[in-house]
Design the sequence.
């Protein structure tokens, strides 16, 4: 099994305060990796380290190596590592749907256009919306504002927007937390479909969701032994290692709901 992203001693601090202790783990190609853990364990910080999104937060510092297909995206000596280009290959879907203040059509077409797509844009938009299981619901209203869509539809549109630039990896930071069970099921179905062609990394507080769709699970725990809260890697393993045969009591207690 081939790793598409390799994290080596990746740590993050804000204003000089450590929030994530060094983590080393591999993200495997065409697999779904779920990141679970209690609040304050650094899940969002960790996933954002994979495409340099933490750099958008003032006074943040990421150390260590993140290798994407062998290239260290944090290499300070490489002028060829452009954060915008990194995020084209490693896309992001956020917890709260955040469509652009544009039409449904332009939400999909805009990213493809600025990334140099030269094909038939109408066909491309239709293809991406079909891949995102949204076409049948919006095909007669493509010129309407994206804000006219329901929350679940907006989140699928944001997934479509990420897909439009053909990323290798899609990072999802709790994409279903604000959605009802029906909309959540649709997103989970999409994730299972996407992994045939892409790699998915998903932060979720929903243990049942992780058990349903993850191939691999990263469990971040909290170290507060010195009075400050820092996330650290407690466990990395398969779905079976995590939910069927957990390796230690702390992991078992978390996945069975005894704490968290």
Sequence:
């Amino acid at each position: 099994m081939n790793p598409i992203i390799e994290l080596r001693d990746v740590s993050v601090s804000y204003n000089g305060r450590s929030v994530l202790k060094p983590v080393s783990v591999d993200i495997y190609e065409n697999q779904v990796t779920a990141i679970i853990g209690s609040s304050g364990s650094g899940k969002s910080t960790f996933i954002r380290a994979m495409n340099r999104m933490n750099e958008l937060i003032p006074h943040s510092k990421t150390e260590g190596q993140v290798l994407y297909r062998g290239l260290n995206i944090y290499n300070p000596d490489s002028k060829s590592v452009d954060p915008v280009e990194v995020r084209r290959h490693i896309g992001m879907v956020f917890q709260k749907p955040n469509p652009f203040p544009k039409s449904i059509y332009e939400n999909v077409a805009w990213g493809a256009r600025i990334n140099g797509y030269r094909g038939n844009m109408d066909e491309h938009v239709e293809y991406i919306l079909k891949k995102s299981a949204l076409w049948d619901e919006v095909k007669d209203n493509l010129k309407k504002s994206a804000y006219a869509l329901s929350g679940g539809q907006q989140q699928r549109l944001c997934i479509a927007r990420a897909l439009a630039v053909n990323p290798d990896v899609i990072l999802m930071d709790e994409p279903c937390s604000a959605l009802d069970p029906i909309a959540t099921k649709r997103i989970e179905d999409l994730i299972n479909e996407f992994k045939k062609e892409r790699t998915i990394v998903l932060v979720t507080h929903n243990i049942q969701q992780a058990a349903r769709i993850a191939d691999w699970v990263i469990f971040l725990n909290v170290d507060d032994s010195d009075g400050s809260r820092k996330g650290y890697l407690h466990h990395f393993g398969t779905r079976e290692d995590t939910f069927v045969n957990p390796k230690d009591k702390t992991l078992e207690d978390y996945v069975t709901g005894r704490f968290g």
In short: Residues 3-255 form a domain with the Rossmann fold fold (CATH 3.40.50.300). The CA atoms of residues 32 and 232 lie 21 Å apart. The mean pLDDT is 92.
